[in-house]
Structure formats: structure tokens, C-alpha cells
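Here is one chain, start to finish.
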Amino acid sequence: MVSNVWIIQIMARTMASYVPFGMEPGLCTAQGNLYSMHAANLTFWAVQMMDSRSNGISGLLSGNRHDFGNLDQCANISVPEYNIYGRYFVVNLKFNLKK
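Its structure:
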């Protein structure tokens, strides 16, 4: 039996353990956990961060690879007490899909 696994599920599993190159793994995990906690509590800076990100690319299966989110909103996030600052980056994902 073939399992139906959607791209969004693959991406969610991959991003759960993703650590950006050049980042200290412990720091990245700690800040990610802090962000998740504040997002769940609807803290303004975390909601801004959530709102500025790309919310998923529509038309991905048709070849659309562009959804850039909101650069200015993301880059302007500053939470010095937690050493969290918004940064904008573009991720290039490549899939090898079998038919």
C-alpha cells in the first residue's frame, strides 16, 4: 500500500529538526522554543514574526516556487531581552519527486 505523504508534511517533519548553517544548535533550539511559547501566548513580536513569514506557496505542485512573505515586517522585529532579531532569508528547496 502506498502512503499518501503531502509535500507540506515532508516540509513540517524536515523543519522540526532544521538548524541553519552557522548557528549554534543549542541557541537555535532555545530561541525556537521561546518563539513557539510566545506565539502560543499571542505575544505581539511572535505574532508579527508569524504574520511576516511565507504561509506556504500556493501552486507548488504546478511549479510556483515564490512566496516571499513580508521582508520589512520581518526585518523590523527586535526583541533585545531575548536576543531575537528578525532576519529575512530565502530558502531554496529542491525535491526529487517520483511519479
